[in-house]
Recover the amino acids of this structure.
């Protein structure tokens, strides 16, 4: 029997598309707060003897992990077989080192929590910087959807003479891959982060690219400061207004509006997090990877 897919609140649109593409049944869960702030969860369909997939993109993760944990525990309690997690955006990947004495390396603690709660994990382009593979911190079977090819297709179809720009050395892995597949030139900048809302970016000579459309590419757009700082330099160099592409558009606070006001010609994201900027669809690739994992790990 096919797995039963359940979406956590705010994940319905993407989860329904995925369920349809996979031919899986989509069930309903209730997850809400009691008046005292505690979490209530309930499966509205019987889950006994079924493979279960919980679908939840993990931006603002602290609000989501307890409902997720309670739902996974409830499913096990009610006799579900394996319980998988599809999290198009995987949180806590950026805290991959103790930057300052006394800090927690929360990527490790978070991965331990997810690995203890679920039987497998599928995600889209996690922020692998100092870790080279999810297997360094996750102990459950996992698969990654790479969006480079899908982003490259979008760029080829939508942008004339693109110059791809990666804001920091971490982005080179994505940008070089997208550039190769889109057959476009690329440059990588140097970034120094001084705090959550303060980054400096240095830009190499870009004058020779004036006839190109700058396309900034990053895996995550959170406060937008990395992209805004880059846009500032491009303006000084009298480059055309850039297109900004993020795999995961978190857009904390007013990041989207700020980025528009800073001079982004267009802001485009993959639909790993539901947002009006979603223009690059990763659901076909997500469905293919879930199917492949099912087959390889003999799930269902
Ligand atoms: C950095 O480690 C990531 O690849 C992104 O550059 C970063 O998350 C962007 O953050 P923000 O939008 O807050 O500058």
């Amino acid at each position: 029997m096919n797995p039963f897919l359940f979406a956590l609140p705010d994940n319905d649109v993407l989860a329904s598309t995925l369920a349809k593409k996979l031919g899986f049944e989509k069930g309903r869960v209730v997850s809400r707060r009691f008046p005292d702030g505690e979490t209530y969860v309930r499966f509205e369909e019987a889950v006994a003897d079924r493979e279960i997939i919980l679908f939840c993109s993990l931006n603002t993760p602290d609000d989501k992990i307890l409902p997720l944990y309670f739902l996974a525990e409830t499913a096990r309690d009610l006799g579900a077989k394996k319980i998988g997690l599809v999290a198009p955006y995987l949180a806590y990947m950026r805290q991959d080192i103790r930057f300052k004495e006394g800090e927690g390396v929360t990527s490790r603690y978070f991965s331990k929590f997810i690995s203890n709660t679920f039987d497998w994990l599928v995600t889209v382009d996690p922020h692998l910087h100092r870790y080279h593979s999810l297997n360094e911190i996750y102990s459950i079977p996992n698969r990654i959807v790479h969006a480079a090819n899908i982003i490259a297709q979008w760029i080829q179809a939508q942008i004339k003479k693109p110059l791809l720009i990666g804001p920091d050395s971490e982005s080179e892995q994505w940008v070089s891959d997208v550039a190769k597949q889109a057959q476009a030139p690329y440059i990588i900048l140097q970034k120094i982060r001084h705090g959550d809302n303060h980054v400096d970016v240095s830009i190499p000579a870009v004058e020779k690219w004036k006839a190109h459309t700058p396309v900034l590419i990053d895996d995550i757009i959170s406060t937008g400061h990395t992209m805004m700082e880059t846009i500032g330099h491009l303006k000084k160099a009298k480059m055309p207004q850039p297109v900004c592409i993020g795999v995961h558009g978190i857009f904390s606070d007013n990041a989207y509006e700020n980025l528009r006001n800073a001079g982004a010609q267009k802001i485009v994201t993959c639909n790993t997090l539901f947002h009006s900027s979603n223009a690059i669809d990763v659901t076909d690739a997500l469905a293919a990877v879930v199917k492949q994992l099912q087959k390889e790990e003999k799930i269902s």
User: Anything to note?
Assistant: Helices lie at 12-22, 61-77, 106-117, 148-158, 172-182, 225-236, 255-262, 283-296. Residues 98 and 105 are 6 Å apart (CA to CA).
